[in-house]
């Protein structure tokens, strides 16, 4: 009996390759095929950035990753990768190295654009993070610890996250950040987060947790709002914004209000900055923004879109749901003071 049981165990050890069900084998092949094809498509567009910045009278070296977004050399990266830099070098997986110039940085979105001249480059296609779903496969490509062209895969583990950024005395929350379990490490910042079709849906920006490699990373989304930021950085090197002084998030509408407005979500005011335009207008935490200048407000990006340069100094009407009632407040955004000290 014991011999037959041992034989059965030994036989079972030889069987998994042949006994793996077709569906499992096909799933593994499909997964591997997607990651491999995405890596081959996108890796030539991902660069290793080495930058030089002045620190206490001396030069300090730093680096990260970047993604080519136009054939004539515009490269998207994280603002914190190049902030304070005056020069640098972009290295490609082919061995090509090109000098870069800093075109513009926007610390409040943690996005920056640099440019490499002297060669026709392969640009990554831009996707739309607004179409992502939790559980969707994503691939991160960057240069962790300087190891060029490193590829890791995972899933979108959450959407709609936010984290604070700072420029001088100005603090702002980056909204709708993508949370992924693709392994990220120092040097991945500024690198590509792409979907299964190889479209750029995010710029990896942070690793969170008490230490590095905790299985949780964040990426700035590529969507209509951040596309405008990128265009402004390319066009003028800076981003002008209107400032309300609130931190927001998406929140389901109460059932009666949802039926009345024929939509499911609004914008919750999570925090109101003391002394800001919103505070002066009487906006309070837990208010639910449902309308901005007559336009339905469904998600934080709707408010961010409204806070462009045209809104500076212009009175805006905001419809708010509070304690079972709807009221309208008028607020005049000010220009966000970038680099204030």
Which features characterize this protein?
six-stranded antiparallel β-barrel; six-stranded antiparallel beta barrel; 8 helices; alpha+beta; globular; Thrombin, subunit H
Can you walk through the features of this model?
This protein is α+β, with helices and mostly antiparallel strands and 341 residues long. Among the domains are: 72 residues, Thrombin, subunit H (Beta Barrel); 94 residues, Roll (Pdz3 Domain). 22% of the residues lie in helices and 41% in strands. The protein has eight helices and 20 strands. A six-stranded antiparallel beta barrel has the order 1-2-3-6-5-4. The radius of gyration is 24 Å and the shape is globular. The termini are far apart. The relative contact order is 0.12. The model has no long low-confidence stretch (mean pLDDT 84).
């Amino acid at each position: 009996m014991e011999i037959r049981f041992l034989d059965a165990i030994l036989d079972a050890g030889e069987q998994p390759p042949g006994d793996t069900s077709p569906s499992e084998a096909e799933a593994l092949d499909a997964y591997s095929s997607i990651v491999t094809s995405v890596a081959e498509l996108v890796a030539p567009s991902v660069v290793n950035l080495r930058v030089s910045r002045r620190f206490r009278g001396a030069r300090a070296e730093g680096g990260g990753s970047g993604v080519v977004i136009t054939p004539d050399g515009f490269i998207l990266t994280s603002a914190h990768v190049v902030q304070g830099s005056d020069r640098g070098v972009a290295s490609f997986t082919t061995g090509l190295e090109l000098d870069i110039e800093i075109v513009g940085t926007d610390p409040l979105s943690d996005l920056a654009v640099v440019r490499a001249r002297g060669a026709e480059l392969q640009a990554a296609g831009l996707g739309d993070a607004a179409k992502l779903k939790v559980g969707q496969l994503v691939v991160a490509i960057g240069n962790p610890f300087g190891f060029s062209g490193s590829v890791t895969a995972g899933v979108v583990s959450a959407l709609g996250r936010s984290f604070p950024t700072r420029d001088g005395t100005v603090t702002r929350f980056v909204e709708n950040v993508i949370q992924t379990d693709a392994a990220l490490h120092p040097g991945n910042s500024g690198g590509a987060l792409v979907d299964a079709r190889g479209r750029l849906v995010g710029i990896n920006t942070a690793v969170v947790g008490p230490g590095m490699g905790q299985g949780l990373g964040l990426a700035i989304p590529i969507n209509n709002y951040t596309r405008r930021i990128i265009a402004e950085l390319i066009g003028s090197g800076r981003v002008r914004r209107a400032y309300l002084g609130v931190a927001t998030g998406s929140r389901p509408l109460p059932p009666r209000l949802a039926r009345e407005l024929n939509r499911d979500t609004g914008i919750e005011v999570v925090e109101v900055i003391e002394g800001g335009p919103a505070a002066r207008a009487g906006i309070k935490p837990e208010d639910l923004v449902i309308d901005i200048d007559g336009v339905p407000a469904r998600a934080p990006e709707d408010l961010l879109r409204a806070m462009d340069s045209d809104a500076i100094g212009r009175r805006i009407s905001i419809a708010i749901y509070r304690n079972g009632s709807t009221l309208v407040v008028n607020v005049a955004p000010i220009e966000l003071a970038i680099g204030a000290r």
